[in-house]
């Protein structure tokens, strides 16, 4: 099953699968589950409860750390990390794991091999799940310092990962970079190009995961 946040991402993935030689479109359930980890977790869990699946993929657009990649690159998670789930205080932020409440880091299936998709680089590393999209250099620097292996951020991966784990299933997260993580610059977002990358990556992603 592939879980996106919004319909445009779901449709892009479907468009990509429609071109597959083997009938991947029939083999893959595509779900637009909503924006944010809570919406993603609820939608994923509700769907997983209805029928069995082999693997769950969180897919969509996301922000890329500019020193790790560029716009329209494909980001592949090696780990999915809830980056701002915790508590702030005078000594700084502590994750819920550091507070003794749970797990904020989930190992991900990173499909191999995933070679450049129509000229776009494939960048592997940690993908951060945030509740608030980064909009300042300070926030980007804070995330970078806490997560040196992070390649990008989005808002749903951890929710999908938690739901998949509840059903004993492996999870992957794939993001096509629509924007840079840093000071807010909405005019610089390249959502159309990112959706094209997502469409072109759909078949290699699913072949990499399903074999
Ligand atoms: O308007 C803004 O400044 C802004 C900043 C970050 C995120 C948003 C969204 O509306 C994101 C909603 C949607 O897109 C994914 N996404 C894409 N890029 C990012 C990002 O840099 N940080 C977090 N989420 C991102 C996200 O997964 C949501 O599904 C607006």
Automatic annotation (TrEMBL):
<dbReference type="InterPro" id="IPR000845">
    <property type="entry name" value="Nucleoside_phosphorylase_d"/>
</dbReference>
<dbReference type="Pfam" id="PF01048">
    <property type="entry name" value="PNP_UDP_1"/>
</dbReference>
<dbReference type="InterPro" id="IPR019963">
    <property type="entry name" value="FL_hydrolase_MqnB"/>
</dbReference>
<keyword id="KW-0326">Glycosidase</keyword>
<comment type="function">
    <text>Catalyzes the hydrolysis of futalosine (FL) to dehypoxanthine futalosine (DHFL) and hypoxanthine, a step in the biosynthesis of menaquinone (MK, vitamin K2).</text>
</comment>
<dbReference type="GO" id="GO:0005829">
    <property type="term" value="C:cytosol"/>
</dbReference>
<keyword id="KW-0474">Menaquinone biosynthesis</keyword>
<dbReference type="InterPro" id="IPR035994">
    <property type="entry name" value="Nucleoside_phosphorylase_sf"/>
</dbReference>
<dbReference type="GO" id="GO:0009116">
    <property type="term" value="P:nucleoside metabolic process"/>
</dbReference>
<dbReference type="GO" id="GO:0019284">
    <property type="term" value="P:L-methionine salvage from S-adenosylmethionine"/>
</dbReference>
<dbReference type="GO" id="GO:0008782">
    <property type="term" value="F:adenosylhomocysteine nucleosidase activity"/>
</dbReference>
<comment type="pathway">
    <text>Quinol/quinone metabolism; menaquinone biosynthesis.</text>
</comment>
<dbReference type="GO" id="GO:0008930">
    <property type="term" value="F:methylthioadenosine nucleosidase activity"/>
</dbReference>
<comment type="similarity">
    <text>Belongs to the PNP/UDP phosphorylase family. Futalosine hydrolase subfamily.</text>
</comment>
<protein>
    <recommendedName>
        <fullName>Futalosine hydrolase</fullName>
        <ecNumber>3.2.2.26</ecNumber>
    </recommendedName>
</protein>
<feature type="domain" description="Nucleoside phosphorylase">
    <location>
        <begin position="27"/>
        <end position="202"/>
    </location>
</feature>
<keyword id="KW-0378">Hydrolase</keyword>
<dbReference type="GO" id="GO:0009234">
    <property type="term" value="P:menaquinone biosynthetic process"/>
</dbReference>
């Amino acid at each position: 099953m592939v879980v996106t946040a919004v319909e445009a991402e779901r449709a892009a993935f479907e468009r990509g699968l429609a071109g597959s030689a083997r009938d991947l479109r029939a083999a893959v359930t595509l779900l637009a589950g909503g924006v944010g980890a809570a919406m993603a977790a609820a939608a994923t869990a509700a769907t997983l409860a209805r029928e069995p699946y082999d693997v769950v993929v969180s897919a969509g657009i996301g922000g890329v750390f500019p020193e790790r990649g560029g716009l329209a690159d494909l980001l592949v998670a090696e780990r999915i990390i809830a980056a701002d789930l915790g508590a702030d205080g005078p000594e700084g932020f502590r994750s819920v794991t550091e507070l003794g409440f749970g797990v904020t880091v989930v190992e991900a299936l990173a499909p191999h091999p995933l070679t450049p998709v129509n000229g776009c680089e494939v960048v592997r590393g940690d993908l951060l799940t945030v509740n608030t999209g980064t909009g300042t250099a300070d926030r980007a620097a804070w995330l970078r310092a806490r997560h040196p292996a992070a390649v990008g951020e989005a808002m749903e991966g951890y929710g999908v990962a938690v739901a998949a784990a509840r059903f004993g299933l492996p999870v992957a997260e794939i993001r096509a970079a629509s924007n840079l993580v840093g000071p807010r610059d909405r005019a610089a977002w390249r959502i159309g190009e990112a959706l094209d990358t997502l469409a072109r990556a759909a078949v290699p992603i699913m072949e990499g995961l399903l074999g």
